[in-house]
Amino acid sequence: HRGIKGLVVLESGEIVSGSKVEVENLETGERVREVSTSILGEYWKLLLPGNYRVRATVDECSQSGSIKVSPWQQITLTEEEKLKRLDLVLTEENCQSGPR
What is the mean pLDDT of residues 8-33? Predict the structure, then answer.
């Protein structure tokens, strides 16, 4: 299998279950189907070779007025590579500005 896998964690290192992982193909601009993290904070997505950007979000606005989002990270998959690991770290962002 070819694709990406990883963990979604908070800055403290705490795992985040149920967060949404978004994958976008940079060559076509197409957003690939989103996946959710497991109870252990793991995610995996099968992908064809190409250039992608990936981020994780938790879409719930907290009582403090913030959401959790990771910055977009770019990753390139080649024919020779089977599976790449990409861990994503969530930080807090103001709900009004929304995920980037």
Answer: 93
